[in-house]
Amino acid sequence: MQRFERFHAIQQLDPERDNCEICRQLAGYEFSWDITRALEIALFRTFCVPSIAILLDRTAEFHQRPQKRYDDTGLMVSLLLKLGHDTPRGQSVIQRMNQIHGHFPIRNADFLYVLSTFIYEPVRWIERFGWRQLSQLEKRALFYFWVSVGQQMGIQEIPSTYESFEQYNLEYEREHFRYNAANQRVGESTLKLFLSWFPPPLRPLIQPLVCAIMDDRMLQAFGFPSPQPWQRYVVEQLLQTRGRLLHYFPPRQTPSFYSDEPQRSYPQGYELADLGPPKMLAELKEKGRSNHSNHSNHSQSNG
Predict the structure, then answer these.
(1) Mean pLDDT calculated for residue range 276-292
(2) Which pLDDT band, with edges at 50, 70 and 90, does 300 fall under?
(3) Domain locations in the chain?
(4) Closest-CA residue to 142 (of 60, 81, 87)
(5) Least C-beta-crowded within 10 Å: which of 21, 29, 154, 205?
(6) pLDDT digits (tens, 9 = 90+) for 169-190
């Protein structure tokens, strides 16, 4: 029964009013590994949309600095889940995200789709591989959490219910997932990044297993070869077995957030001001120096 104490405590909360606390419990304690993996799949799925992939391909961030691009995204999402969107520190993360996105011409529809993946990919992953199922209350808390983030990001026309936003997510994928050379280039750069985390002799063995997690629509959009049925079976069984075993483990006592782990891009640690493309960071520093110089000149002239 101890394994479900946190679950029962979450069920006493309100999914709209307490969405930050519920999501902090889910991401930090109940499903910390699962939600990180699900958000990696969410990231991958967004590259199946040509309008998103073409922009990422043009910036070349995933080709030149894939680890930093991955870490920056993972850190900002993790910090939001840890801090909440309703705290000053959490709102600073959203401001940083807005600052970064403001440098690129991103369509509102693409913003909406990416936002939806943060809700429904964790739900789908946990339904397949989690040590327990999510309750309706927890699913709605995820919805309210990311809708609030989206509103603070200035995203327009966010569907008003869990069900309608899920429908948007599914219809958007049916309409927009299609092969494009940019999808393939960004997908291959990201796949190489994932494989770089493993010793070189293991990489040829790991690659088809990563592809085995992807559905056919994703593989077609990337132009990736379909894995063998046995490879899909092995991956499914390994992940489901992990979930079944965790059912009998004691509950996590200390939180585990991606943002608290050592980062490959920031071995000496990081500040929020470090996150973002280098070109943008250079522009912000130059702007800061210019503002400081203007302020000094203004002070001297007043003196």
Answers:
(1) 72
(2) low
(3) 12-250
(4) 81
(5) 205
(6) 999 999 999 999 999 999 999 9
